[in-house]
Amino acid sequence: MSGTELKKIFLNKSEIKAMDAEHKRKLSFNIGKYNDTVIKGKQQFENLDHARKKAKNIKWKTIENLDKYLTEFEKNFTQNGGKVIWANDAQEANDAILEICKLHQATQVVKSKSMVTEEIHLNDILEKNNIESVETDLGEYIQQLDGEAPYHIVTPAMHKSKEDVAKLFHEKLGVEPNLTPNELTLIARKNLRAKYTSAQIGVTGGNFLLADVGGVCVTENEGNGRLTTAFPKVHIAIVGIEKMIPSIHDLNLYWPLLATYGTGQNVTVYNTIFTGGKRKGEVDGPEEMYVILLDNGRTNLLKDPNVRESLYCIRCGSCLNACPVYKNIGGHAYGATYSGPIGSVITPHMKDFEEFKHLSYASSLCGNCTEVCPLKINIHGMLHYNRTLAVKNNETDFTENTGWKMWRLAMTHRSMVDMAGGSIKTKLVNSLFKNSWGKRRDNLHFNKTFKQMFSDRTK
Predict the structure, then answer these.
(1) Which of 9, 90, 243, 268 lies at a 20 to 30 A Cα distance from 407?
(2) On the CB side of 443, how many CA atoms lie within 13 Å of its CA?
């Protein structure tokens, strides 16, 4: 699909959601609860600004030396008895997973919450190969039942109310209508418990990779990640190469930051470090563990110093919750795995820049995303860079180019500005912006030029 077609779809979806009062009510309610808890969570830090700067510096050091830390991780994880697979793209990752499934004659897979498996469309691949894949995170389970992708990096079903979920369970699972959240949770738990014990393979992502111990960290609030990795004989962790941090000792900084900015907690309920399959004397856990280190466009970000900083992201979702655009159009309008400000930065580089460059224009450049980022990532600066890159690559359309040329011509010639009196300016603006600004607004009326207004005020 061309960039023009994707842009048109994005604009159509955005317009529908922006005008959907019920959608905005649900989103506002859930983000409002998030904002209240984050304020409380930040109080655990004696010097929050210092913690954020330190976390950013550690990530800077890691990304600048990523090759060293990746090979160190591979060495240590392999020594622990695990197996490392390097995947350049989604196809290589999916082929490796299918090969492991074939080797172990797997017909069923259980999955803990993982955005990277959404990125490579793993569920679709497994289904095409007659392998059942079940999401075990409650939010992801809800989305899978509804046939939808995750709506948010941290809260997959943020756009659904409890009434929406009750209706969905009634339609898909045949349970009684209008059940309470507690009753719905118990039904999901009952259905999923049977899957944990019958699945041959458990699949997770990873919040952090630890170079010094060869460990994969999985952070969650429900315990589904631990169940996904405790019962199946094989555990596959698929992790983006940017999730690396140097040492296990850095977790005392990153775990609280992720919890605070992700959900407002002091620390997430379940934090697990996996260093391989179960060892002698251990009663549960997988017999084998694989880690798939995924590139899939991340080295495109790495090689460009102007957007390399985006690889510091710890996927807390804070920038989404702060973004005025995301809060109006929601996650699905973006048409990409990673939505919101950070998604608009990385998606054009990880995929096809020409096809997804329009996402970087879905921003007011207010800088709120940068302000709320726990690692102080310059998100709005990189959104501006993407726009600049589109211009340099001659990937902007005729209308945009002509508009900016006319604006520059007028702004650099005082006489032209003075010529555009009230009536001329009124006709020009209302004509040019009839289908954008003026679509749901009254016409603008200009009575005087700026020069006339300034003269009147300074007489």
Answers:
(1) 9
(2) 13
Residue 428: give the domain boundaries.
Answer: 408-457
Please state, in angstroms and rounded to a whole number, the distance separating the CA atoms of residues 137 and 160: 15
Q: pTM of the prediction?
A: 0.91
Tell the residue number behind the tokens 């804070």, with chain if given: 318
Tell me which amino acid residue 146 is.
D
Complete DSSP assignment for 143-155: HHHHT---SSSS-
328 shares a domain with 209? no
Residue 289 has phi, psi (to 5 degrees) of -135, 130
Q: Which of 261, 296, 331 is the last residue of a domain?
A: 296
Please count the other Cβ atoms lying within 10 Å of the Cβ belonging to residue 66: 19
Tally of domains within the chain: 3
Residues counted in the chain: 459
Asked whether residue 72 falls in the same domain as residue 135, the answer is yes
Asked if residue 310 belongs to a domain, the reply is: no
Same domain assignment for residues 373 and 436: no
Cα distances from 294 to residues 168, 314, 324, 422, in angstroms, run 34, 16, 31, 58
Sequence-ordered list of residues with C-beta below 8 angstroms from that of 384, at least 6 positions apart, any chain? 365
SS (H, E, C) 371-430: HHCCCCCCHHHHHHHHHHHHHHCCCCCHHHHHHHHHHHHHHCCHHHHHHCCHHHHHHHHH
Whether 352 and 423 share a structural domain: no
Rounded to an integer, what distance in angstroms lies between the CA atom of residue 320 and that of residue 35?
Answer: 12
pLDDT of residue 381: 98
Q: Residue 393: how many CA atoms within 13 Å on its side-chain side?
A: 11
Co-location of 249 and 370 in the same domain: no
Residue 239 has pLDDT above 90, yes or no: yes
3-state secondary structure 95-108: HHHHHHHHHCCCCE
Q: Which of 296, 328, 354 is the last residue of a domain?
A: 296
Do 222 and 340 belong to one domain?
Answer: no
Q: Which residues pair with 84 in a beta bridge?
A: 291
Look at strands 215-220 and 208-210 and give their pairing. Answer: antiparallel
Interval 248-280: pLDDT, tens: 999 999 999 999 999 999 999 999 999 999 988
Q: What is the pLDDT of residue 370?
A: 98
CB 1 within 8 Å of CB 355: yes
Same domain, 212 and 354: no
Interhelix angle 21-41/251-263, nearest 10 degrees: 140
Q: How confident is the model at residue 452 (pLDDT cuts 50, 70, 90)?
A: confident
